[in-house]
């Protein structure tokens, strides 16, 4: 009989306890922030008709996702993000009154090349606002993202904001490339800077018929970044209009959110339509973006709702967990209930039940063990206290409370021990 293969499919992994604890910390912080900003939590369906998934990225998306025919011959696919499902949900619900603010946190699947901090199954959080186009809505999503990382205590992050309209104005007016297809192709070059070297891109776009000097000027323009005032001043010198960034600078200042403007941030030029942003951990550039998003007004229209605009953000829990210190993982140390003799077993179960009912993590042996072995187990799992129950304790209505740090013991009434441990847990 052949042995079962216990390895996992490529790009899929288990989430081990330490990382799960970090991801749980991110999830709780996200749910708190979503509630503070009045986003309503939901989860879109994990399986969609393939036509729905293609609405965001076209038929080419089939190569990058888990797509297949079900047993009824229908073309379906696993969600590759949460935005598509949330948009499909909103567009189908004409009874919902804008602005519609939704939040979600769930898993997604992508059939792309696994690499550092990138997997084929991953978990992400998502914030979306649907309604009339509004810079205040863009700012709301940016601020909520900022408050999330602030709440997580990640002091090395920065919010980098760009704007498609500003880049398009530069390409149209300064470079003089006005034909829409050519202009979009030029902007796409800026979107590729993080994935390819500038010399390679210069060669690629020269072969497509673009002038080398225009490509160099585009890359120089994309390198402009810094505090909003500094960037807006540079734009004024270049005769580039940016009404969205000008207004956003004042809005973010009023919201007390520190951001940088970065004209190299364009994020998917075929999808986003306005303000875009990324969250970067400046101490971990190897991770890429921890989160990102922006305005994407075309997707609701693809679902039959041209009356709806949309803006949102999403972040990967895996990458954010990598940014958080593993030293921050603290599993609650349980109180250990040790039993000396069979006559004390029933009483030990009552004590165990009462501890847990009071919110105190508690543990005991699941097999009969000598008291010395139980104390070894308690020490191994880092239990600060051990409640020992033997025949003498049961007959006296008391327990022996052992301090595992000081190695001291005291015979006390059961109620006194429980109250003491509850206070210790609270502290």
Describe this structure in words.
By secondary structure, the chain is an alpha+beta fold. The chain has three domains: 196 residues, 2-Layer Sandwich (BirA Bifunctional Protein, domain 2); 125 residues, BirA Bifunctional Protein, domain 2; 92 residues, Rossmann fold (3-Layer(aba) Sandwich), CATH 3.40.50.800. It has 16 helices and 17 strands. A nine-stranded mixed beta sheet has the order 1-5-6-12-11-10-7-9-8, sandwiched between helices. A five-stranded mixed beta sheet has the order 14-13-15-16-17, sandwiched between helices. Helix 13 links the parallel strand 13 and strand 14.
What are the main properties of this structure?
alpha+beta; BirA Bifunctional Protein, domain 2; single chain; five-stranded mixed β-sheet; 16 helices; 427 residues; nine-stranded mixed β-sheet; 17 strands; Rossmann fold
């Amino acid at each position: 009989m052949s042995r079962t293969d216990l390895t996992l499919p490529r790009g899929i992994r288990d989430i081990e306890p330490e990382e799960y604890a970090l991801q749980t910390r991110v999830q709780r912080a996200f749910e708190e922030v979503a509630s503070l900003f009045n986003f309503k939590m939901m989860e879109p369906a994990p399986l969609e008709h393939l036509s729905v998934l293609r609405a965001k990225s076209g038929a080419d998306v089939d190569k990058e996702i888990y797509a297949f025919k079900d047993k009824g011959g229908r073309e379906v696919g696993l969600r590759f993000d949460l935005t598509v499902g949330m948009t499909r949900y909103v567009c189908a619900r004409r009874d919902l009154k804008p602005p519609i603010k939704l939040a979600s946190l769930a898993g997604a699947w992508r059939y792309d090349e696994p690499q550092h901090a990138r997997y084929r199954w991953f978990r992400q959080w998502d914030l979306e606002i649907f309604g009339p186009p509004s810079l205040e809505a863009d700012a709301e999503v940016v601020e909520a993202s900022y408050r999330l990382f602030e709440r997580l205590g990640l002091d090395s992050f920065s919010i980098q904001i760009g704007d498609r309209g500003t880049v398009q104005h530069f390409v149209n007016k300064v470079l003089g490339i006005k034909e829409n297809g050519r202009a979009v192709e030029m902007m796409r070059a800026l979107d590729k800077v993080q994935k390819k070297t500038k010399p390679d891109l210069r060669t690629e776009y020269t072969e497509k018929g673009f002038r080398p000097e225009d490509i160099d000027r585009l890359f120089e323009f994309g390198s402009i970044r810094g505090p909003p005032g500094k960037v807006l001043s540079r734009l004024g010198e270049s005769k580039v209009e940016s009404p969205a960034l000008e207004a956003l600078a004042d809005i973010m200042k009023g919201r007390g959110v520190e951001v940088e403007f970065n004209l190299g941030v364009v994020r998917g030029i075929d999808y986003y339509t306005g303000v875009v942003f990324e969250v970067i951990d400046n101490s971990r550039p190897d991770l890429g973006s921890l989160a990102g998003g922006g305005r994407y007004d075309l997707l609701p229209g693809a679902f039959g709702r041209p009356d709806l605009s949309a803006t949102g953000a999403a972040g990967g829990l895996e990458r954010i967990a990598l940014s958080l210190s593993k030293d921050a993982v603290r599993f609650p140390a349980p109180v250990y209930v040790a039993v000396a003799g069979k006559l004390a077993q029933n009483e030990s179960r009552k004590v165990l039940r009462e501890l847990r009912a009071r919110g105190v993590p508690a543990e005991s042996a699941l097999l009969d063990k000598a008291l010395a072995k139980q104390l070894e187990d308690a020490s191994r799992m880092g239990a600060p206290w051990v409640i020992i129950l033997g025949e003498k304790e049961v007959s006296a209505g008391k327990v022996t409370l052992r301090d595992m740090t000081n190695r001291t013991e005291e015979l006390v009434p059961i109620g006194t021990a429980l109250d003491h441990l509850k206070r210790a847990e609270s502290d």
